[in-house]
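Bumping my old thread because nobody answered last time. Still need a sequence for this structure:
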C-alpha cells in the first residue's frame, strides 16, 4: 500500500509530464509559425526536458521505495 505522500508525488509527476508535453508541442509549433530564433526552440526544449527528467527521477524513487516493501 502506498503512502499519501507517494500518491501525491505520483500525481504531481503525472501532471508535470502532461503539462510539459503540451507546452513542448504547443510552443514548438507556435515558435515555428512566428519565426522565432532557434535559440528559443533550444530553451523550450531544455526546460521541457528538465521537467520530464524531474518527473522521471521522482517516479523512479517512488517505484524503488515501493519495490523494497514486497
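Sorry it took so long. Here it is:
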Amino acid at each position: 500500500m502506498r503512502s499519501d505522500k507517494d500518491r501525491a508525488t505520483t500525481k504531481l509527476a503525472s501532471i508535470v509530464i502532461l503539462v510539459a508535453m503540451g507546452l513542448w508541442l504547443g510552443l514548438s509549433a507556435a515558435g515555428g509559425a512566428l519565426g522565432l530564433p532557434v535559440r528559443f526552440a533550444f530553451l523550450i526544449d531544455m526546460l521541457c526536458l528538465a521537467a520530464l527528467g524531474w518527473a522521471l527521477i521522482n517516479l523512479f524513487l517512488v517505484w524503488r521505495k515501493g519495490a523494497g516493501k514486497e
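The chain is about 85% helix and 0% strand. Let me know if any region looks off to you.
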